[in-house]
Amino acid sequence: MEHLKGLEKILADIYEKTGAHAYLAPQGGEETAFTAEWNGEKRELYLAGSGPSAEREAKLVAYLLADRPQPSLNGKTEQMRAILSGEGGRLKAFSYLAGYGIADGPCFAIEVLPQRRIEDAYEHIERCLEGKDSAVCMDDERIAVVKFAEEGQSPYEFGQFVSQSLYEEAGVRARIGVGCEMPSFGDIAVSYSQAVSAIRMSDVLGDKGEVHSYREYLLVHMLSDIPKERIKECLDSFRIGGTEEVYRDEELIVTAEVFLESNLNLSETSRALFIHRNTLSYRLDKIERLTGLNIRKFPDAVTFRVITVLLKLIKD
Fold first, then answer.
1. Less CB within 10 Å around the terminal CB: N or C of the chain?
2. Residue 48: which of 65, 27, 18 has the closest Cα?
3. CATH homologous superfamily, domain 106-220
């Protein structure tokens, strides 16, 4: 009896999320009988309605029941790896939720690349998680974390929390990529792909720091699809001289990037670079002399950012 109650619960979950109304015994009226595998056994089930639409729904229910993950640690880990890698799509993700009794909801993924001691990092991250959240080692270098959204904490703030906690409590530094929040677990593979992409883009641009959000690379993502010849044409159209000279001067380009990351705040940039405010002003003046762009002003700062991104993309 308990066995059938478990099946009834899964069928109720399937009905709630897909609208396919299947049940254990005939209820009369217009319905479709079909066979499905449940925990290694063949069972006769029934579905409300008839015709091609009902037959498609019956196939969906049978697939979800047959693909239901087995309640074991290894099975759960392998299922999560497959889902994050995009295998099976939304159906696989839904099957995972149904199989482990997890309620759907907004969620996001992050990728963690510990510099060392990945086992210790993984154990520490697991201790930091609660409820529906989970972590899985994707390979010997990468840890994926799935976090169901909480009010008051953004994905980027969670990434910062993991980074700080790993360093302060486990003594492990890690680079972290943060994906965007998705409305449903069915899209979690998209968020994880974004997290992986955020780290890759930070490598391309040589960005400092340990936590990188996909959102901050929206511009880079858009520009990276442009052929390099077209990028060179765009750079020529700007007709701004001296930008490449700034790009080749590590001191100037680091100063400019930290200034942009500090929201054009002189005091914050000075503290971040450990330099006097007058020294910072001198460097910003030099950038303006070379390029004609006063990056203290927002429009010029945006133009400078676009140009430096384009330069990095054609040199990649």
1. N
2. 27
3. Reverse transcriptase/Diguanylate cyclase domain (3.30.70.270)
Give tens-digit pLDDT for 252-285.
Answer: 888 988 888 888 999 999 998 999 999 999 999 9
CATH 3.30.70.270 domain range(s) in the chain: 106-220
Q: In the structure encoding, which two tokens stand for residue 49, read together?
A: 């309605």
Q: Where in the chain is the domain with CATH 1.10.10.2840?
A: 226-315
DSSP code, position 68: P
Residue 183 reports pLDDT greater than 50 = yes
d(CA 140, CA 137): 7
Beta bridge partners of 174: 114
Please tell me what DSSP assigns to residue 235.
Answer: H
Q: How far apart are CA 281 and CA 179, in angstroms?
A: 36
State the Cα–Cα distance between residues 191 and 21, nearest whole angstrom.
30
> Token pair 């010849």 is at which residue?
229
Q: Give the pLDDT confidence of 28-61 residue by residue, as tens digits.
A: 888 888 888 876 678 888 888 888 888 888 888 8
CATH number of 226-315: 1.10.10.2840
Q: Which residues contact 148 (CB under 8 A, 6 or more apart)?
A: 105, 106, 107, 131, 132, 133
Burial of 289 (0-12, 13-18, 19+ CB in 10 A): exposed
If 0-12 CB within 10 Å is exposed, 13-18 middle and 19+ buried, where does residue 57 land?
buried
- Burial (CB < 10 A; 0-12, 13-18, 19+), residue 199, is buried
Under a CB-based contact definition with an 8 Å cutoff, are residues 178 and 73 in contact? Answer: no
Q: Provide the pLDDT for residue 56.
A: 87
Distance, C-alpha 92 to centroid of its chain? 18
Q: With contact defined as beta carbons under 8 Å apart, do 290 and 308 qualify?
A: no
pLDDT at 311 exceeding the cut of 80: no
- Which amino acid makes up residue 252? L
pTM of the model: 0.63
